Amino acid sequence: MPLKLALRLNLYRAAQLEVPVDVVRHAEALGYHSVWTAEAYGSDALSPLAYLAALTSRIRLGTAVVQLAARPPATLAMHAMTIDAMAGGNRLILGIGVSGPQIVEGWYGQPWGRPNQRMRDYVTILRKVLAREEPVSHDGPEIRLPYTGPGALGQGKALKSIMHPAAPVPLWLASGGPRNTALAAEIADGWLPMGLGPDGVPDVVRARVERGDGFEVFTGVSVRITDDVRGALAAMRPLTAMYVGGMGSRTHNYHRDAMARRGFPEAADRIGELWRAGRKAEAQAAVPDEYLEQTALIGSPARIRERWADGAFVPSGVTGVIVDVDPAAPKEALELMADLVGTREEAAA
After folding, report:
1. What phi, psi does 139 have (nearest 5°)?
2. Contact indicator for 104, 69 with CB cutoff of 8 Å
3. Which residue ranges form the domains of the chain, and what is each CATH number?
């Protein structure tokens, strides 16, 4: 199966929203499979895709990820059908994640609950809405439609979407832990791994990929073309330390857990300790070069080609890579990756 290339847009981290349309169009011309947005507690993941739908013609539009707590499942299905219709159909991919209790309870004002079961309920309802086979009802342990809980009038009615989907909308799940990863292999159309180690995808996902029904596994790679490798690594440390040390609590931090899964449990714990103690510079210094280079191609084009050529950079079982490029000079990195994977020739054929 040929490896697919995708482009990551880190719009959700910016104070001002600027969608790099020319970069996305360049990726499309180079044969990139998809472009992906995300959300945290700033810009949302879906609006930029609606904008890009009007300004591109074939590149697929993905979310990595939309947060489950941000919208009821029926609302997300409405967004998906609307954007995919505007894009011409068969272009939207919904990648969904549960986020963490700090955002779920602190930003969205919802209980953390049972995230594994909530995700199952959520995806089940999404599929029912998109299928339009009958009015949607669901009696799950976390989500029920129609709603009959506290404050209900008892007048809720099962409804069927007025709008017909332009095409099927694939549902991918983002996860790191074993339960939600197994859930992705069971009920989703693709997996966005968080903290995928060098051993590749777990057996439960590999079995789904090998089934041959189009199940996808996309992981991430940062590409920085530079003569200053150490400087590029140093520039990556502040954000990495903030995520591993500060995006969560002592008991719930999925970025720390991801670092541990990738083979650096001691460093992950140490970064968390330093960050919580307010020693941010030390936390940044504690991020290992080896950890950063597991998912980053940094250096001259020759160095990057050499690392790619050894065949070990992309973990076994992965079907696509989402490329994060330097916003100051993105096109050279996009072109280099297109040459390495071979999408430029395919796009020109």
Report:
1. -120, 80
2. yes
3. 4-226+300-348 (3.20.20.30), 227-295 (no CATH)
Tokens at 227, concatenated: 């003569």
Rounded CA-CA distance 70/159 in Å is 21
275-291 burial, b at 16+ Cβ within 10 Å, e below that, comes to: beeeebeebbebbbeeb
**Dist. CA 134–CA 274, nearest whole Å:** 54
61 within 8 A of 53, measured Cβ to Cβ? yes
Question: 């051993």: which residue's tokens?
Answer: 199
- C-alpha closest to that of 23 among 348, 335, 341, 340: 335
| Contact (Cβ atoms closer than 8 angstroms) between residue 337 and residue 323 | yes
Cβ neighbors of 49 (< 8 A, separation 6 or more) are 37, 61, 62, 63, 83, 87, 92
The pLDDT tens digits of the residues spanning 292-332 come to 999 999 999 999 999 999 878 898 899 999 999 998 889 99
